[in-house]
Amino acid sequence: MTIEIKVPSVGESVTEALLAEWFKQDGDSVEKNEPLFVIETDKVTLEVEAEAAGQLKILVGEGETVAIGIVVGEIDTAVAGDTAPKAAKEPEAEAKPPEPEAEAQPPEAAKEKAPAEPAKDTPPPEADKEAAAPEAQQLSPAVRRLVAENNLDPAKVSGTGPGGRVTKGDVLLYLEGRPAEEARAAASVPAESGEGERRQAMSPIRRRIAERLLAAKQNTAMLTTFNEIDMSQAMAMRAAYKEAFQKKHGIGLGFMSFFVKACVEALGEIPEINAFVDGKDFVYHDHCHIGIAVGAPKGLVVPVLRHAEKMSFADVEQAIGDYVAKIKDNRLELADLEGGTFTISNGGVYGSLLSTPILNMPQSGILGMHKIEKRPVVVDDEIVIRPMMYVALSYDHRIVDGKGAVTFLRRVKEFVENPERILLEV
After folding, report:
1. CA–CA separation, 325 and 320 (whole Å)
2. Can 397 be counted among the known catalytic residues?
3. Integer Rg of the chain from CA
4. For residues 184 and 413, what is the distance between their CA atoms, to the nearest angstrom?
5. Of 33-42, 239-248, 324-333, which one has max mean pLDDT?
6. pLDDT at 87
7. Domains with residue ranges and CATH for the chain
8. Could you tell me which of 142, 113, 135 has the C-alpha nearest to residue 23?
9. pLDDT tens-digit profile of 180-221?
10. What is the 3-state secondary structure (H, E, C) of 97-124?
11. pLDDT tens digit string along 147-167?
């Protein structure tokens, strides 16, 4: 029986996808529910699993753009158990009598003959590499090409794929974070010449991100206002309750839940920041669907916490943890990204001290969190050292006035600096 492998639908608005990577080779045996390949659309990256065990036949190679629903491979379930017969044939090969030349040749003759042609006995550098690094043979063709183009040692790249396999995304993430000295050393042309370069096609997700960011700059009256938050109380509360929180809910207590809850309260007071412009109308939301910007190997994604106004601290942390796991395993669905009314972006996890976030259209507001840094501040006419965080609110000035933006940011500051106000809703 032959089962067709089709590109799955990921949403009504998506009609095509990039077949980014096959995890298996043509003719390989696969198990049921084993990841077969990755597709990339302009919104999500998704792994497709085998529906049954059998032998894989690849019909469409990686790197091809394919329509949703097209058949890209087949699984022959009749060949699922063929590994046993192959093993049974091996004893027959061992039973064959040795070649006469090999039987008649004494060890001394072999030793004398070996030095006669030393060049032939020396394996080429490529063979040495393959023998020394068998794990490289397990890389997919796309990963092998990327590793070869950048002169990388695969052993240095941490794999996040099934069984610790190194994926294309792992290599791209490694390339982004490697030191400049290592990058220059790996370049085929010395950096001093100023001529080293390489060209790489944009992925569908990266193209979509570029389009949306450019549209936000061109089609909104975007403005940014700033404030700073004393994180002392939030840090003290987190330190006091993090163990009990972890024990009860099975998830760590982070600062994102403080900001999500603070933003929900502030959005209730400044509803235009939870709205958007639609032609000549303003559309207001009676719910808070908070998008959380998460950096992923393929690009920035913004999964949405639906009805955050009804969520507890534990609900927020659990939902974020679930989304991070789905992103890592390429399980994020299009529905996870849709319907956001406001976005929070935490550049502080990368060390950013201050930035101006760009609106996530059609939303009219986005909050940027940043690095917590000890700074001298004046409290009760005294200079003290406090853990401070700069926060930035970018907003669409067509619907949000400066007064509303400043008030929103001030309310977020008040809630985070006094977390008990969130619980008491005052």
Report:
1. 9
2. yes
3. 28
4. 44
5. 239-248
6. 40
7. 2-79 (2.40.50.100), 147-201 (no CATH), 205-424 (3.30.559.10)
8. 142
9. 555 555 555 454 555 678 887 777 777 878 888 898 989 999
10. CCCHHHHHCCHHHHHHHHHHCHHHHCCC
11. 877 778 888 888 777 667 787
For 420, the 3-state DSSP assignment is helix
3-state secondary structure of 171: helix
Burial of residue 165, with CB atoms counted within 10 A of its CB: 0-12 exposed, 13-18 middle, 19 or more buried? middle
- Can you tell me the distance from the alpha carbon of 5 to that of 2, in angstroms, rounded to the nearest whole number? 10
Q: How far is CA 348 from CA 24, 372, 426, in A?
A: 38, 7, 28
Residue 357 tokens read as: 């976030």
Asked if residue 405 has pLDDT above 80, the reply is yes
Say if CB 255 and CB 245 are below 8 A apart. no
Measured distance CA(186)–CA(128) in Å, rounded? 20
Kindly name the residue from 26, 82, 153, 401 that is annotated as catalytic: 401
Which residue spans within 177-308 are E strands per DSSP? 222-230, 275-278, 281-284, 290-296, 299-301, 304-305
Regarding predicted confidence, which is higher, 398 or 208?
398
Nearest-CA neighbor of 407 among 258, 267, 259? 267
Closest to 169 in 3D by CA, of 47, 11, 36 = 47
**The model's pTM:** 0.64
Instruction: Select from 222, 161, 254, 209 the least CA-distant residue to 356.
Output: 222
Quick one: which H or E segment has residue 56? strand 54-58
CB 28 within 8 A of CB 140: no
Q: What residues does 5 pair with on adjacent strands?
A: 73
Whole-number Å distance between alpha carbons of 391 and 399 = 21
137 or 385: whose pLDDT is higher?
A: 385
Of the given ranges (17-26, 97-106, 144-153), which has the lowest mean pLDDT?
A: 97-106
Torsion of CA 345, 347, 349, 350, to 10 degrees: 150
* DSSP 8-state code for residue 161: S
Please write down the HEC assignment for all residues of 12-47.
CCCCEEEEEEECCCCCCEECCCCEEEEEECCCCEEE
pLDDT average, residue stretch 238-255: 93
The active-site residue, picked from 128, 153, 307, 397, is 397
